[in-house]
Each structure stands twice: as structure tokens, then as C-alpha cells.
Design goal:
single chain, 89% helix, 0% strand, 148 residues
Length: 148
């Protein structure tokens, strides 16, 4: 009766898979945060551009000092907000890079244990094959034994 294969590091492999999956979720969350920040920066750029276009249209109708001051203060507010968001984006990109490095590390460790499992399965099959060949050899030698 052939021995059933049992991988002794199965619990380690499952644990590493759980770690890898949780890290992948963190990586996706960091990527989503970066995308949201980039979208917000694009929105601020669009607002600034719309304000500039409105200023040009207002200049064609006539110059108003109050409108100019209001538009300048709005532009300063948009630029300050954009600056904050750019620094936030830089932090989020660093966090994303860190999460990516951790994910790569966990993927490698999971892959190593997975390769160990594959190697153990191959060795098990080889041992079963050797045992089967030994039984066949013994059977053939006892059946066709020539008496001297």
C-alpha cells in the first residue's frame, strides 16, 4: 500500500498565503489612495484653468478690480490646496512603494515554500516509484528463481 503524501510545512504555506493576500489588499488600497489624490490634483488644475478662462472672459467685458482680487485669492487658495495634495501624493507614493516591497518579499517567501512543496512531492513520487520497482524486482526474482 503506497504511503499517502503529507507536506509537513502545509500550515506554513497557508500562513504565508494569508500574509501575501493581506499584503496584496494593502497594496491595492495604497494604489487606490494614490489614484484618488492624483484625481483631486487634476480637479484642482481644472478649477484653476476654468478660473483663468473666466478671468479672460471678464477682461473682455471690462476690468473690475474686485473681480481680479477675488480671482487672485481663489487662485492662491487652489495653489495652496494643490501643494498640500502634491505633498500628500508624495507620501502616498512612498507608502505604495513600501507596501509593494513588502508584497514582493512575501511573494518570494511564499514561492520558496511552494517550491519546497513541489520538491517534496517529486521526492515522494520518486520514493513510491523506487518502492514499487523494488517490489516488482522481488516478485520477479522469487517467481523465476533458478535453483542451482
Amino acid at each position: 500500500m503506497p504511503k499517502k503524501f503529507k507536506f509537513k510545512l502545509a500550515s506554513v504555506l497557508r500562513y504565508r498565503q494569508i500574509l501575501k493576500d493581506s499584503q496584496e489588499a494593502k497594496l491595492m488600497q495604497a494604489a487606490r489612495a494614490c489614484q484618488e489624490t492624483e484625481a483631486l490634483i487634476q480637479t484642482l488644475d481644472d478649477q484653476k484653468h476654468a478660473t483663468y478662462q473666466a478671468m479672460i472672459e471678464n477682461l473682455q467685458q471690462g476690468f473690475s478690480l474686485v473681480d481680479k482680487v477675488n480671482q487672485d485669492s481663489f487662485n492662491h487658495m487652489v495653489l495652496a490646496e494643490k501643494s498640500k495634495e502634491q505633498s500628500r501624493l508624495a507620501k502616498r507614493k512612498r507608502a505604495h512603494d513600501y507596501e509593494n516591497a513588502k508584497y514582493i518579499s512575501l511573494s518570494r517567501s511564499h514561492l520558496i515554500v511552494d517550491k519546497l512543496k513541489d520538491k517534496a512531492i517529486d521526492l515522494h513520487h520518486k520514493a513510491l516509484l523506487e518502492e514499487e520497482n523494488k517490489l516488482i524486482d522481488d516478485l520477479v526474482s522469487t517467481r523465476f528463481r533458478v535453483k542451482d
